[in-house]
Design a protein that fits this description.
Length: 532
């Protein structure tokens, strides 16, 4: 029984044909950058598939699992991840996506039984929209966080079309995809006029293109001269085998060749640039060599390092080390010329499998230190709970965004709320090889720039290093497997976008709506609701 009608144009399509077409559209939308809008017809087909009788979840799961595997296969290239990346993206994430569509449509069918709701199709679809967005928000916070394939991220290569993310964020992009798909489905079902999906599709695009060509309204308070370094040490054979001193010498040579006698305000080096672990209590002494080198070229520098400290008692992240306990961190170090004590921020969003064991907080009491060792090459890292902003006198306020944190929209916005007027992304994407992974990772930085109205300086060990403006445009990129230095005067912006002020309010609202809907679903299992 079909409560939303059946798309007459696709009634003759078999389930297999629908599944194949939806899968191809999803893969094309992500792997061919200019075809991002194909995500919308893909979800129109998924809506139809969700209404077909028999084995709905299994059909949806097959589509989602293949999409995940074909789009994020490169996670398998990370060494010592114990295969958790592949499991998470295909088996687990595919099942969660299929479950979100299945549960969402089941809820919408329940709501549509009520005439007052059924006469407004959009209201009947709210449970579906809320369920999907709640699934995406789950990926911001739970132990197997993986927001990579959030629908709003699909347009990472099309910044001209998503300038309105500075108002609604990437979740607004997800909402747009779902609403246009729903409107197109209703039109094909004969319930809505064609003008409705066309308007919903074109209105945000028209606004966005207009914003793209308008000048930046937020005037800079000043600028900083930045040197972004891409040293290009292959991972893992060079990065963790070449002596640290030689790696520092290479950066010295690169800066000498590109800067000469010129000095800059800020030097940006990639994640884990210093491969040898350092104790936090002696960080000023153990980084003295690189600091002296950097002082010859700039007034301040940010670079990555692995650090550690000791505790007297056990906690979630540490493990026994003699008579004490040791916690390791993936850290960003900020050095200001003349200062003996660098500022430190520890990566707060860790890569599942490579840097942390999923649900380590709950598993450590059961598995002991094995729960930490299963966290990849270095065990499970400790984290910083607050978004720290590095300050260089009155010159600039720098947000240290380390690798994976770049994917978390609301997380990044917290840096701006804490006063950052420049965002720095330091990363090492060499683990994935020359795949779509490192390219999409760079483009996500453009979405963060749009959302927050900030310039981004990005240093990646093997590429792509670049500078990104507040409209998401990429400047002076250094490609894969290149080495070099990017020099540019980067404006400092203080004004806040609507999204940086409000955060992801759409996500929070939809999570609350999903909770109400889930309660009603459970309630109706025991009490019969009579349509009114």
């Amino acid at each position: 029984m079909h409560y939303f009608g059946t798309m007459s144009l696709l009634r003759s399509w078999s389930d297999g044909k629908l599944m194949l077409a939806a899968t191809l559209l999803l893969i094309s939308a992500w792997n061919v950058p200019v075809l991002g809008v194909l995500i919308i017809p893909a979800f129109v087909l998924l809506l139809e598939l969700a209404h077909r009788p028999k084995k709905r979840f299994l059909k949806l799961y097959a589509v989602m699992a293949i999409w995940n595997g074909a789009t994020t296969y490169w996670v398998a290239y990370a060494p010592d991840s114990h295969g958790l990346g592949v499991v998470a993206t295909t088996v687990i994430n595919g099942a969660l996506m299929a479950g979100a569509i299945w549960l969402g449509m089941r809820s919408s069918i329940l709501w549509s039984k009520f005439p007052r709701v059924a006469q407004y199709s959009l209201l009947a679809y709210l449970p579906f929209i809320a369920t999907w967005i709640a699934f995406e928000k789950l990926h911001d916070h739970w132990g197997m966080a993986f927001p990579w394939l959030n629908l709003g991220n699909t347009f990472n290569a099309l910044p001209m079309f998503v300038q309105w993310y500075k108002w609604l964020g990437v979740t607004g992009g997800t909402l747009w995809v779902l609403m246009v798909a729903m409107a197109a489905y209703e039109w094909l079902s004969g319930r809505w006029r064609k003008s409705r999906p066309i308007f919903l599709f074109l209105a945000p695009l028209t606004i966005s293109v207009t914003l793209w060509f308008l000048p930046q309204h937020d005037l800079p308070i000043g600028s900083v001269k930045v040197a972004v370094v891409q040293p290009n040490f292959h991972v893992p054979d060079e990065k963790f085998s070449i002596p640290e001193g030689k790696q520092i010498q290479k950066v010295d040579s690169l800066l000498s060749a590109h800067l000469g006698e010129e000095r800059v305000d800020l030097i940006v080096l990639p994640e884990t640039f210093l491969p040898n672990p350092r104790e936090l209590s002696s960080l000023g002494f153990t980084t003295r060599g690189i600091n002296q080198m950097l002082d010859g070229f700039g007034n301040a520098a940010i670079f990555g390092a692995t650090t550690f400290d000791f505790q007297d008692t056990s906690n979630v992240y540490n493990k026994p080390y003699g008579s004490r306990y040791k916690t390791s961190y993936n850290s960003a170090i900020f050095h200001v010329k003349g200062s003996q004590s660098p500022s430190v921020y520890h990566k707060g969003k860790l890569v599942v499998g490579a840097e942390t064991m999923p649900f380590v907080k709950y598993l450590k009491p059961l598995l002991g230190d094995l729960a930490l060792e299963l966290g990849g090459t270095s065990g499970s890292f400790g984290v910083s709970r607050e978004r720290k902003v590095f300050e260089s006198g009155d010159k600039f306020k720098l947000a240290p965004i380390i690798c994976w944190e770049n994917e978390f929209s609301d997380y990044t916005t917290d840096y701006v709320r804490n006063g950052a007027n420049l965002l720095a992304v330091i990363t090492n994407d060499g683990w994935w090889g020359n795949t779509r992974g490192h390219v999409q990772h760079m483009r996500f930085s453009g979405l963060r720039a749009i959302e927050n109205g900030r310039w981004i300086v990005r240093s990646a060990n093997t590429g792509i290093s670049c500078i990104i403006d507040p409209k998401g445009r990429v400047h002076e990129p250094l490609g894969w497997d290149e080495e070099g230095v990017i020099m540019m005067d980067v404006p400092l912006l203080e004004g806040r976008t609507l999204y940086s002020r409000t955060g992801d309010w759409i996500g929070r609202f939809m999570v609350m709506l999903f909770a109400v809907n889930l309660f009603l679903l459970v309630f109706t299992r025991f009490f019969r609701l009579k349509p009114r």
